User: Fold these one by one.
Assistant:
Number 1:
Amino acid sequence: MKASAVAKLIKWQLPMKRVLYALTPIMAASVYFYGWRALVMLAVVNAAGFAAEYAFARSWKEPVSSAVFVTSCLFALSLPPTLPFWMAVLGVVFGITFGKMVFGGFGKNVFNPALTGRAFIYVCFGDYMTARWSPALPGPLGGLVRYAATPDAITGATPGMLLKTGQEFSLLELFLGNISGTLGGTSALLVILGGLYLIHTKAANHRIVVSAVIGYASMQALLWSGGVEGAADPLRGMLAGSFMIGAFFYATDPVSAPKTNEARWMYGAFIGIMSSLISTFSAWPAGTMFSILLANMFAPITDHFVRALKVRK
């Protein structure tokens, strides 16, 4: 197929391009930390995501939205480095189909498609998603000279889970990301830099990020200072898991997030507070994923409430 024909199949939106630009260093870091299998995972997931959306877009005689690549990349970066490819394909196809296309396609979905797919395989394949993690590959070249970690290097828990048991990690490790975890969620430094780029270019709303951080830090500090079992140090808890990438990249999805500024403050605070509570009190450390999906569900009615209140005033 010619390049011009391929270009007609895809409708590129500038905000989606900016998200992909922000994700590029994070994707490169996933290869450095976990090997070239991370790049293969990204390619496989993007191909499957594009095919899933194209199947609907073709029948509707519409081009595929470039948002599908954002969804696919975010989905792939939320996975363990050693997850079987077929599980990843199943997850992204489910997310695109039931998290987006059944609502009518781009701009009409209620839930974040990437997290919809992740939640599906998180529940279906809990062992693979919670107990099989690859440590960052050692050496100055890291994963640049390896395909993936050896099977005997697979660990049983991420720093986010180990913090619940009282184990501590250096802030430098958590900040740089050379630890076990998801493909794209370990390096707080790259996530923050990418997120700030999104805010600077107006591709993400700062109100959601700020309120989410304040909500998480406040609730986590309250639990930690109160000696609640399983409550991690607020700073380490924020850097160790998926909270940072969730706040900057998933929660700020312009389609599934609220549209009014007042609702955005409430939405972000809800995500931060619920992420802290779920991570502390549940058996699963993926509090951010579930908190964002819950917030997605209430986003439309929150917008409706804010607008109705303004009309009444």
Number 2:
Amino acid sequence: MFHPLSVFVGLRYVRSRSHKFFVSFITWVSLAGVCVGVAALIVILSVMNGFEAELRDRLLALSSHARVVQSAGVPPRQATDWQTALAAVRASPDVAAAAPYVELQALAVHTPEMLPIQLRGIDPALEGGVTEAAQSLIEGRLDDLAPGLDRVIVGSVIAQRLALLVGDRISVLVPTVSAEGIPTPRLREFTVAGIFEVGLPDHDGVLVLGDLQDIGALATADPLARGIRVRFNEVLQAPAGAAALRSTLAAGFEIRDWTQDNASYFRAIRIEKTMMALILMLVVAVAAFNIVAMLVMVVTDKRNDIAILRTLGASPRAILGAFLTQGLVIGWVGVIAGVALGVLLALNVGSIVPVLERALGFQLMNPEVYYITRIPSDLQWGNVAWIGSIALVLTALATVYPALRASRVLPAEALRYE
């Protein structure tokens, strides 16, 4: 802990107006640089967290948190095996809902166009068949997918490419192979009961939803097309919940959670967040170098004051503490101001961006180009804590060299030519 004299002298130097203009200018630039760097890092990471959450919500709107499927290379599972697996999944306290599904690769035909699709059979009557959030994305009702009606809900990109409207008929061709190895494609005609738009090509341009029994009739020759969709109480519990369920499933079943199915998306986001954090932390580092330069000039400017303090009995440690106090106050005021500004901006991004768009006369997220038309923000206090901590450490380290240099000033050398 510093001696009170060190703190008094250091704070006095902070408030002093006798510095040369250039020294004062560098002081304010250093403080502003730390503030802006910390605030920018908090805001940008919050916005990237918001985009990550938005992407996760859209990915899971028509998907499950985890899937139980048959392992490749094992004999076909009997219906009783699937019922046993479904009962074991539903018995887990972490599982909010579970339902069977069927998924096939098929070819959608609407003369004169055709398109490869992923045909998924669900039971919307069972909770967990489709997440509740999906209903708001669909033009139509999930209740329209009833057994025997041969109705489907298609993605918006599929509807656009095949020129489909609600009520149109669409033919679905499922390639299969008979027991003798002869290709025997199955053809069935469905009615478009709705159109959904998630905003992701993996869904809008590929996925077609139908009733479990209707699609299951096309999948009798493909045992690997069946599975169980699982929804956990918390989406972020999926990896741990899937690991716990894995031990309860019989041999021949495997479980995959959403982080495995969509690993490429979130890996790219993590890399972007890491690189952005490193780049913006360089702004704080540059501001810290400015603090070094400013303190070195202050030490040069205060050589006579240091010599007088030493002749009056101040120890080198007291001089060291005085300049450490000055540097820490300047640096930490910048960090605290940056944290406050960053948190304020991150919490109000949704209100600030529309004002800037109106003032500057342009739209940042054009709805004709982007599916997400607003700037989302998800402020995580853990990010704020580590950003503030690293900035405090950088600014503290910046004060060490100038303070050591001040403590080594010899009174006789400083006063020789005075």
Number 3:
Amino acid sequence: MNIISYCNVNPRDYTYLGIGSKNRTSDLDAFTPALDQILPCFLNTVNGTIRVIHYDPQFAPEYDNGFLSRYFARKGFIEIGGVWTTPDFRIEVIIITEMFTQESLFTDFMKHAINTRSRLVVQAYSGIELGSMYKNLYMEFSLQDQEYIKDRVLFDITYGTDCNCGTDMTKYAPIEDSQGRFMNFLLYTQEEKLANIGRHPQLDKLIYKSVCYDLSKILNENSVNYRKALKKEPLMFRGDYSHDASAEEIMAVLLNKVQNILSILDRLKMLTEEKKQLFAKCSSNYRDVDVYAWYSEMTKLYK
């Protein structure tokens, strides 16, 4: 089956593409919603027609041992021409017993979503981190198509936090606005992240995690450069200062960047009074304490 040609001839409102989604147990009674990557529970909230496509060689009959037949029978699906479908044909599931090896297929599925004005969700369960590739593919499209992709195409429902074979499927779902548009965190610029603070609790948690990562990077790189400058040694990292900047110049940049991050954490309502006081103390005592002890104290801002 040429899957893209098939999809183009018979478009659906919503496509869920799973990669490496073989069931982790063949005991149907133990195959709870938390384990179910075949028909994840977030699909229960989707309106319209749905196509589910899975790529995994472990679904082949010699490995499957009849699990899929038992699973779909319990769900009330019927098999027609190798495609599992609900009796009303609203949901169909296609199992492809091959490895998903062609990155170009991602682009093909994205183009299909654009051309059919449908939604697409892609999830990998093999430990592959889709975020970087998704951003690169996204940049290959026109601005008009990028706008559609950002609203209607989502790679990784865990948003880079838990994309592996042990993903708890009851914990994750696409974050959507009231119009059914995806809040596509992995594609957001820093400005878009800030603009979306407060729109959704789950999105705020993702922004918080991202901001804390930025804070840890700022502290690590600039504090190393600060120590190097104190010793009159070459700087290790590039910063918003010259390569021969003084320790005081570097510290000024570090503190300003941290202050900006803390203002974001404050907007997220995730900055405690204790951390505010910690930053105030560290902003004034860095000349008087051991540089390593000072850095250790500052890391408490994101821990």
